């Protein structure tokens, strides 16, 4: 009996094993047949900001075209959540402008996001923001499930925010210290008192100080990553030295009042009430009424000493604060001089006042002589270039600061600076006393250096201790762009009208040579609707306006228009052509432009030229007369402005016209630069 019973039990066991194996195999077959759903990467638009997306870590696909400057980016490497996600991806180099997939990870907020230019995008700086994010290539981490649908913050959907707030995320350490995963719900539950003692890579709250001075109501702690309207980041003034110092940290009730409401807000997102009190752009774009490119030449000589050098830096920081730096307003660079000048930073290095002041604080004194002339020459040749951030349409201003007097000459290099369009200001502090003037290399150096000698460009400060009184007067003057006289040069401030002989004696081939001569002259000028403008008249017995001063506003358009001028053929009525140009061309010249007529003819006129030439003189038109081949030289001298030797030219052959281009340009500029400087 026992033997039979064991046999039956063994048979059942074998059967169960067979069924189990068969089931496992069957499940594997089913699993093979069921295809796992493919992970879908959500798409976003270029303008979506990271702060609008609640997900703490996600993969996303960006479209093409996110390099547009309207998609603002704040920071470098680590970006404030106020930034465009896709714009930051292009700026970081993870994506190009054609778009693609990226991995985004939210991290703690920062104090101080550095702006920089990369991959066609100018990221802006930001003093502080509640939340940051970093971007990398779309390589998913093992064991991490990424959302296929993004969750956006919305005032109408608090439940979605609350649900997302319970997801754990790893907070990367800004300082390199490893931290433990913290859920957003856990972070919000941390009492304020505990937050000040907890060791993390980024403190959740500022340490409470024992300062007896309470923070005014409505101010917020600087270190919590919120805005304070009275912040003066980077400043290290002692109390009472200058306005704009960093406010002291709040204590007691003021601290609780400022931060008690945060426990109900998801970490990393700006409260609605805070957004309502802030401008849509956290960083100023600059004062558009003061759009100048400004270079400060600061004295770093041994003679100035450490104490006065610090006062000079503080003065510079105060000016920068008052100017309201930004891409749409003034931009500032600094050159320090001693024996040899050196650029501390150029116009595009720092594009807001906060970053500039921090950079100024770090400048160290170079020492050496006080070679101001060498510094001005350096700025003229090197500083105001497109590579250094010069914007072209903004006036160039150089403010030279001198302790005492220069150790080299400034007159000649300053003349070159003026003729290059640089408005030179001089601030002389503690200038030479009567007993010291024997040591001054160049007497009256300031008046020889500045743009004009009318007092507008010069400041004489009796003591370094009173230098701060010059801040507002200087800011007012450098921003008064209508009075920056040296912005106007011989190449950017004229209305130039060409009066071209199209008579039968010229011929088609020679007429094309004349047009090339006109084009070669035009190329030398800075052409735009606010700079030099070009117009043209062709004449025979009759006259024809080819194009007026307001027709074309770029050099390429002007050159194309010159090439399209057709040869007319006919007689030679030069006197009538001058009168026609005065009435149809120069009558529409701007009042602030120099009027220059360049007349080109190959023969004697059939009519009288004296009366029209006198009319041109009375209307303030400067006339250059260029005669070719059969032109009458006595007639050219009558047409030309006095002295005729500087305004009339004779060429024996059409093919030699090109040789006179440099001489004509030189004469135009010499005449312009010889104007009185008072």
UniProtKB/TrEMBL annotation:
Q: Where is the composition biased (Polar residues)?
A: 228-239
Which N-terminal residues, if any, form the signal peptide? 1-26
Q: Where does the LCCL domain start and stop, copy by copy?
A: 40-133
Alphabetical GO biological process terms = extracellular matrix organization; nervous system development; positive regulation of cell-substrate adhesion
> What protein name applies here?
Vitrin
Describe the protein's quaternary organization and the partners it interacts with: Binds dermatan sulfate and chondroitin sulfate.
The source's domain of life comes to Eukaryota
> Tell me, what does this protein do in biology?
Promotes matrix assembly and cell adhesiveness. Plays a role in spinal cord formation by regulating the proliferation and differentiation of neural stem cells.
- Gene for this protein? Vit
InterPro entries according to UniProt: ECM_Assembly_Org, LCCL, LCCL_sf, VWF_A, vWFA_dom_sf
The answer to whether UniProt assigns keyword Cell membrane to this entry is: no
Main subcellular location of this protein, as a coarse class: secreted
From the Swiss-Prot or TrEMBL record, state where the protein is found: Secreted, Extracellular space, Extracellular matrix
Q: Which residues form the VWFA domain?
A: 293-478, 495-664
Source organism of the structure = Cricetulus griseus
Q: Which GO terms describe its cellular component?
A: interstitial matrix
- Give the residue ranges for region: Disordered: 195-253
């Amino acid at each position: 009996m026992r033997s039979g019973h064991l046999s039956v039990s063994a048979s059942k066991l074998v059967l169960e094993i067979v069924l189990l194996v068969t089931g496992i195999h069957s499940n594997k077959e089913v699993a093979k047949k069921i295809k796992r759903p493919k992970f879908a990467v959500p798409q976003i638009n270029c303008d979506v900001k990271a702060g609008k997306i609640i997900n703490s870590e996600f993969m996303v696909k960006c479209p093409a075209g996110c390099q547009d400057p309207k998609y603002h980016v704040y920071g470098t490497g680590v970006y404030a959540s106020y930034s465009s996600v896709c714009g930051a991806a292009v700026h970081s180099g993870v994506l190009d402008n054609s778009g693609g997939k990226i991995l985004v990870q939210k991290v703690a907020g920062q104090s101080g996001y550095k702006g920089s230019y990369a991959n066609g995008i100018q990221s802006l700086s930001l003093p502080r923001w509640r939340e940051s994010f970093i971007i990398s290539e779309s390589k998913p981490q093992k064991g991490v499930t990424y959302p296929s649908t993004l969750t956006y913050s919305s005032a109408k959907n608090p439940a979605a925010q609350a649900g997302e707030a319970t997801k754990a995320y790893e907070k990367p350490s800004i300082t390199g210290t490893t931290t433990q995963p913290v859920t957003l719900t856990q972070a919000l539950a941390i009492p304020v008192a505990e937050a000040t003692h907890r060791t993390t890579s980024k403190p959740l709250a500022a340490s409470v100080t024992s300062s007896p001075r309470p923070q005014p109501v409505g101010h917020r702690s600087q270190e919590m990553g919120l805005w304070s309207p009275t912040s003066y980041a980077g400043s290290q003034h002692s109390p009472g030295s200058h306005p704009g110092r960093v406010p002291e940290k709040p204590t007691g009730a003021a601290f609780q009042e400022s931060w008690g409401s945060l426990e109900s807000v998801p970490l990393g997102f700006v409260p609605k009430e805070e957004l309502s009190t802030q401008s849509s752009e956290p960083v100023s774009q600059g004062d558009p009424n003061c759009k100048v490119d400004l270079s400060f030449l600061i004295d770093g000589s041994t003679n100035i000493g450490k104490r006065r050098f610090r006062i000079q830096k503080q003065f510079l920081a105060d000016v920068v604060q008052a100017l309201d730096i930004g891409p749409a307003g003034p931009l500032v660079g600094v050159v320090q001089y001693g024996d040899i000048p050196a650029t501390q930073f150029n116009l595009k290095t720092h594009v807001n006042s906060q970053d500039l002041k921090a950079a100024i604080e770090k400048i160290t004194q170079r020492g050496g002589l006080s070679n101001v002339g060498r510094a001005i020459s350096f700025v003229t040749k090197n500083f105001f270039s497109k590579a250094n951030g010069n914007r072209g349409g903004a006036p160039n201003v150089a403010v030279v600061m001198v302790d005492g007097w220069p150790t080299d000459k400034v007159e000649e290099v300053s003349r070159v600076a003026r003729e290059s369009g640089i408005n030179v200001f001089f601030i002389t502090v503690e200038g030479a006393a009567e007993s010291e003037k024997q040591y001054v290399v160049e007497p009256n150096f300031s008046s020889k250096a500045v743009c004009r000698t009318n007092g507008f460009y010069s400041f004489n400060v009796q003591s370094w201790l009173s230098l701060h009184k010059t801040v507002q007067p200087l800011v007012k003057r450098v921003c008064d762009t209508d009075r920056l006289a040296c912005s106007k040069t011989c190449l950017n401030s004229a209305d130039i009208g060409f009066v071209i002989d199209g008579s039968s004696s010229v011929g088609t081939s020679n007429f094309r040579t004349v047009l090339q001569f006109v084009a070669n002259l035009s190329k030398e000028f800075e052409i735009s609707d606010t700079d030099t403008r070009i117009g043209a008249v062709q004449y025979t017995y009759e006259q024809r306006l080819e194009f007026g001063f307001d027709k074309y506003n770029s050099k390429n358009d002007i050159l194309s228009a010159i090439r399209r001028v057709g040869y007319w053929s006919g007689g030679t009525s030069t006197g009538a052509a001058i009168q026609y140009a005065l009435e149809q061309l120069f009558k529409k010249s701007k009042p602030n432009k120099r009027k220059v007529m360049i007349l080109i003819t190959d023969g004697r006129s059939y009519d009288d030229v004296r009366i029209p030439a006198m009319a041109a003189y009375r209307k303030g038109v400067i006339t250059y007369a260029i005669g070719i081949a059969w032109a009458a030289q006595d007639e050219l001298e009558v047409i030309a402005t006095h002295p005729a030797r500087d305004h009339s030219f004779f060429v024996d052959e059409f093919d030699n016209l090109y040789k006179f281009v440099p001489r004509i340009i030189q004469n135009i500029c010499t005449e312009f630069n010889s104007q009185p400087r008072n």
